[in-house]
Amino acid sequence: MQTVIYLDEVLLRLLGDFLVNLLLLWATAQITKIRRPPWRMPSAAALGALYEFAYLGSSWHLWKGFAFFASPLVMLGVFICMLQVAFGPIKPRRLLSVGGYFILIGLVTSGAGLVASYMFGENPLVKYVTAIAAILVVAELGWGVVHRVVWQELLHVPITVRLGERQVQVEALLDTANHLRDPLTGESVIIVEAEVLAPLLPEDFLKVVTGREFDFSQLSQALADTTWAQRFRLLPYSSLGREHGMLIGFRPDEVYFTQGKAKHQVEDVIVGIYQRSFLPNGEYRALMHPELLQTAMESSWPDAIKPSST
């Protein structure tokens, strides 16, 4: 019994597999934020298509080795090689994370292809077009929009800190883990990078608080005969790797954020001065508890719609 092989169908299948692999890798890179030279992902996609060609040829008995190419270990090895070519070198723990995203997107893609097969029959072109569309939806709509709306819009709030006639605007992350309070007054603390606050702070005070280990005597000298003596706060804190830390803070004249045309003031708050950066890319440069945001918005509501305290 002879096997009839149509060259155009083989080429379409290999081209389709290459494009799907390429888009799966691209979608994985979009989600994981891994950046590598442009040639890497096409090379990895070509490796996957080459394996598919070897597998198909052995299944059609064009050459031996079907049991080898169909082995789960070989499939796993090719999968790992693809990820290493596209994103490597990757450590084992990071490899599991990246591979998980790749597989998750692949499962969604396979499901879309299966639905297309039921609706339009076993048309390979329709199947690949559906798969490619599914990847684009997952990568951009399914993840990109959610990421932008939830992360950048809901979890990020641009706040303004004013001191006298000067003010700075900073992107704050709403962080439920930030429970830092002034031990004397119980007021909540918004933690802001010192570099952002530099335009507001006196030069002598800034030099002391941004030093690697600040000296209380130097701090007292910097505050002497200034209004900062009344604004100044010492904020003890505990964090991972540091059980007994000390953060310097101050009471600003005003902290607020805007929502459309509405201005919401954050009342009874202390600004803590963080000496380092939260993230290298500066995606956010302050930490603020969500409760402060909620309280500020509720305080500006009309009395008729304010939540009852009873």
Characterization of the model:
With 310 residues, this protein is an alpha+beta fold. It folds into two domains: 7-141; 155-302, Cathepsin D, subunit A, domain 1 (Beta Barrel). The protein contains eleven helices and nine strands. Strands 4-5-8-3-9-2-1-6-7 form a nine-stranded mixed sheet. Helix 1 (7-32) packs antiparallel against helix 2 (40-59). The model is unreliable at 148-152 and 303-310 (pLDDT under 50).
Strands in their spatial order, largest beta sheet:
4-5-8-3-9-2-1-6-7
Task: Tell me the major beta sheet.
Answer: 9 strands, mixed
Taking the alpha carbons of the first and last residues, their distance comes to 84 Å
Order of helices and strands: HHHHHHEEEHHHHEEEEEEH
In brief:
The protein is α+β, with helices and mostly antiparallel strands and 310 residues long. The chain has helices at residues 7-32, 40-59, 66-69, 72-87, 92-120, 124-154, 194-197, 203-209, 216-223, 228-231, 290-299, and strands at 156-163, 166-174, 188-193, 232-239, 242-250, 254-259, 262-265, 269-274, 286-288. It has 2 domains: 7-141; 155-302, Cathepsin D, subunit A, domain 1.
